[in-house]
Amino acid sequence: xxxxxxxxxxxxxxxxxxxxxxxxxxxxxxxxxxxxxxxxxxxxxxxxxxxxxxxxxxxxxxxxxxxxxxxxxxxxxxxxxxxxxxxxxxxxxxxxxxxxxxxxxxxxxxxxxxxxxxxxxxxxxxxxxxxxxxxxxxxxxxxxxxxxxxxxxxxxxxxxxxxxxxxxxxxxxxxxxxxxxxxxxxxxxxxxxxxxxxxxxxxxxxxxxxxxxxxxxxxxxxxxxxxxxxxxxxxxxxxxxxxxxxxxxxxxxxxxxxxxxxxxxxxxxxxxxxxxxxxxxxxxxxx
Length: 287
Description:
16% helix, 19-stranded mixed β-sheet, 2 domains, single chain, Diaminopimelate Epimerase, Chain A, domain 1, 4 helices, alpha+beta
């Protein structure tokens, strides 16, 4: 299996081009093996780039634990870059099919390579049952949640996948590594949830750390940054256009007042390519 390692703001995945090769089998197990940072390629998960009957391409993604996910903003930017840079879809405007629907992207190209990608992330979902969460009334904004003896105020948003946003004075390891996994699996979230711990720096800037459902802490989360922007507006903490500072880099997010869509802008980088032997248990070679 040929693969390409790519990252957006440090959120890294192993990508498989299913335009040029047949899709691999046993995808959950493959995702777990290639994602292992000691015995595999090392990544936050596995993303397959498929042909699509309704869009320019289809993204299928798996978390590092093998669970399938609906959407990843950083991953989708990398898919768009791969399609353009490798000549599969050499257009600066693409429609890409995801588990959260078809999303439109615009590419910023320099010297025939994609430098930045702007994604229309769609309209945020705020109805509790559709996020999903068992909180009875929506929107869920600064609602009390008791976790491990701590009382938190949480805001819940879906950007095609569920997010629980917690505004804190300081997003430290105690929050992210200690409370993150407990919130992910709390009974209020029947499909588990991604968790964002957010420091508000100003009306137009925040610092975010993310505990991702099925992957643990990641250096960035595009759908999470989008959810943070929505949560900041709903709770009166930020304006509609913000810069989100993540451990892997910055993302620009705009919750457009006219159409209600969230727009995410950021970079995408191809790191290396390699070959994963079909019978590999934990071996990989890069080139």
